[in-house]
Amino acid sequence: MSTRSDHSDPAGLTSPSTPDVPSAPSAPSVRKIVTIVEEIRTEGGRGLERPARIAVVAAVIANPWAGQGFVEDLAPGIEANASDLGALLAPAVLDALEAPAEAYGKAAIVGLDGEIEHGSALIHTLKFGDHFRKAANATTLLPAVEKRGPAGVVFDIPLKHITDATIRSHHQTVEVRLSDAPHPHEIVIALAAAAQGRPQQRLAPLSTEQ
């Protein structure tokens, strides 16, 4: 497994002038991007015909709603951030995979001072997900994980087939941990792609039980 970090501009958070007036939404403030590629060559004591590859690309961003208290209307922050994040991550994860994607998934990990809903808002919108679907020639909804945690929290991204979520062979997960993220006022937004199903998968199709 290989890991690469590409550092970008530090996440600059601007506090609102008063508690009742939220700051204006802005484009994503990216502290760093992390790329992880896993290549499995042996499973169950038996070599694979071809290595099984999974790629993850994660952006560590400033929480757009940090320091604003409870924000009723998340739409402006979604509009300002979600599409840009999808456009950033979708081509990057497919480039890292170095093969056509057959399964995919997404994640939003919110720092301790944020709400899980903040992460959900950024990834559960077509403005974000359609970038990945179009780039991967996919049609299914992206499976997701959302959680809140400290820097270094471990999370598992679920993946399913890009055109048929009932294909059992492609139901899988990839474990991710970023040692210094998310900070309390940050969110980790990640996409994962697999070039195949589970290594050595041999379950009967769902149709055999219907």
Please provide a written account of the structure.
The protein is of the alpha+beta class and 210 residues long. Helix content is 20%, strand content 35%. It is built from three helices and eight strands, in the order βββαβααββββ. It has helices at residues 75-97, 116-123, 126-136, and strands at 2-7, 30-43, 46-62, 103-110, 144-148, 154-161, 172-177, 186-194. Strands 1, 2, 3, 4, 5, 6, 7 and 8 form an eight-stranded mixed sheet that branches. α1 (75-97) packs parallel to α3 (126-136). The longest helix is centred in the middle third of the chain and has 23 residues, at 75-97. Residues 7-22 have low confidence and may be disordered.
| N-end to C-end Cα span | 38 Å
Total beta-strand segments: 8
**Average predicted confidence as pLDDT:** 89
- Structural class, judged by helices and strands? alpha+beta
Q: Spell out the helices and strands N to C.
A: EEEHEHHEEEE
Strand portion: 25-35%
Helical fraction equals 10-25%
Anisotropy-based shape: globular
Let me know the largest β-sheet.
8 strands, mixed
Number of helices, where a helix is a run of at least 4 consecutive DSSP H or I residues? 3
Which residue ranges are poorly predicted, with pLDDT under 50 across at least 5 consecutive positions? Answer: 7-22
Radius of gyration, taken over Cα atoms and rounded to an integer in Å: 18 Å
Which features characterize this protein?
alpha+beta, 3 helices
How would you summarize the topology of this molecule?
Elements: E1 2-7, E2 30-43, E3 46-62, H1 75-97, E4 103-110, H2 116-123, H3 126-136, E5 144-148, E6 154-161, E7 172-177, E8 186-194
Parallel strand pairs: 4-5
Antiparallel strand pairs: 1-2, 2-3, 3-8, 4-6, 4-8, 6-7
